[in-house]
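batch job 7 of whatever, protein = Superoxide dismutase
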Amino acid sequence: MNRRVFLSNSALLGFAGLLLPKSFFVEPKEIFTLPALPYGFDALEPHIDKLTMEIHHDKHHKTYVDNLNKAITGTPLEKQSLADILATASKHPAAVRNNAGGHYNHSMFWSIMAAPNTNKPSAELAAAIDKKFGSFDKFKEEFNKAATTRFGSGWAWLIVTAKGELAVTSTPNQDNPLMDVVPEAERGYPVFGIDVWEHAYYLKYQNKRADYVTGWWNVLNWNAINQRYTEGVKSKKK
């Protein structure tokens, strides 16, 4: 006579555990995670539309995070900080360089924007801008030129250089001034930057990048930018 043996779920798992590693039963932990948007998707309207923000954050940025985790899982890089990975970008595969840059750049991008308000550059940042560029208007003109003339996809930046001075630069694709692939004279701490990939503006502005750049100035979070400037200056004094 056939005898059937019924095992409880715990007994089955215990038996399977003899054959499979414990990690098989544990959900893998993400190394890097998608930061929450610090405001509603529609908070930047009419300058940046709700649908663009939804797609940009939930699709594009999430893809960079997912692909970065995939690229570094099981390698020594999974134990490194994002800053360390960026600083040695030239030594890593394209998948690491591109997605690490995409994650950092977008995390910064969300933080330096906010619903239109009246905050402005701090006295220290305003003085540094005047010293370097002559006036805020001249700085804005140079920054807009860097953003609108960046061929293809990329970013325009205001950075604190190794000498502690301000500079306007631009980078292709998802590169940024923290990477060692950037010319040394253009490296530094990003105070703020603008994403000029078409996915950042195409739904509302179509091919009119200049209009997008002009509108974007209305949603800058100068309180956050002022703090980043202070951090940048401190980092160059160490």
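notes: The first strand starts at residue 154 and ends at 160.
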